[in-house]
């Protein structure tokens, strides 16, 4: 299991982070994050008290967090409580600190926007367009990217109709499609492009997007024609 360790600055303070290739997630040192948000000189004690509070409230958050070896102040690698991004955002909601308020407001805003998009899917496309423009993508590329989202949705709808399970089965089939036109699995392709958590399609050229869309659209049409019953190789999906 290949791991990459780094120390990042957050508001001029050091936060230990570690990338895990297998899970494709960043893991953050919880005591470092607490130190940043609370200015507590005893962040480890603060975290122990917060864990007890979460347990008393019936939260399973602290139980689901793990430990990884990270460089300590003495330079040695020591086991440290860590959280992935989703767990970290949930944890921040439990920290009563002025520095945590911007994160809480952002989470509330994102949650409200997702509810809006459920009621009116067009808003999701408009927000995506705005986001890509802010990141400097050309309008031609953005139109291709938004079309690729539509094509992908048609494919996953077809998979749902055929009983394909989200998660592992989606990933297996996506890998097969990617290998067919690019010669790489999704993970291999991301590695080839030097990506970690970034979205692969967001880092494709116009030509790559077109080839990927063609492969997914073809898979959708074949599935509709053959009507396989599942994702098993014998099912020919």
Mean pLDDT: 85
Q: What is the global morphology? A: elongated
Q: What class would the helix/strand composition place it in?
A: alpha+beta
Give the fraction of residues assigned to helices. Answer: 55-70%
- Number of helical stretches of at least 4 residues: 10
Strand order of the largest sheet: 1-2-3-5-4
Segments where pLDDT lies below 50 for 5+ residues?
A: 233-237
**What gap, in angstroms, lies between the N and C termini?**
31 Å
| Count of strand segments | 5
Topology readout:
Elements: E1 3-10, E2 13-20, E3 25-29, H1 30-38, H2 43-56, H3 61-64, E4 66-71, E5 77-84, H4 85-92, H5 101-119, H6 122-134, H7 139-161, H8 168-182, H9 186-192, H10 206-226
Antiparallel strand pairs: 1-2, 2-3, 3-5, 4-5
Helix pairs in contact: 1-2, 6-7, 7-10, 8-10
């Amino acid at each position: 299991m290949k791991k990459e360790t780094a120390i990042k600055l957050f508001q001029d303070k050091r936060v230990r982070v570690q990338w895990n290739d297998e899970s494709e997630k960043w893991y953050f040192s919880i005591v470092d994050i607490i130190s940043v948000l609370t200015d507590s000189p005893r962040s480890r004690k603060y975290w122990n008290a917060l864990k007890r509070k979460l347990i008393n409230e019936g939260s399973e958050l602290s139980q689901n967090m793990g430990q990884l070896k990270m460089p300590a102040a003495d330079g040695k690698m020591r086991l440290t409580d860590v959280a992935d991004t989703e767990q970290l955002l949930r944890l921040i909601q439990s920290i009563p600190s002025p520095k945590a308020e911007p994160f809480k407001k952002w989470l509330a805003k994102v949650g409200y926007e997702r509810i809006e998009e459920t009621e009116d899917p067009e808003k999701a496309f408009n927000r995506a367009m705005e986001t890509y423009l802010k990141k400097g993508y050309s309008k031609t590329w953005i139109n291709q990217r938004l079309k690729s989202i539509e094509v992908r949705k048609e494919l996953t709808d077809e998979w749902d109709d055929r009983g394909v399970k989200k998660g592992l089965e989606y990933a297996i089939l996506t890998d097969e499609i990617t290998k067919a036109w690019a010669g790489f699995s999704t993970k291999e392709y991301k590695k080839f492009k030097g990506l970690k958590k970034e979205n692969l399609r967001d880092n494709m050229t116009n030509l790559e997007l077109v080839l990927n869309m063609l492969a997914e659209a073809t898979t959708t049409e074949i599935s509709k024609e053959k009507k396989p019953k599942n994702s098993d190789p014998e099912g020919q999906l």
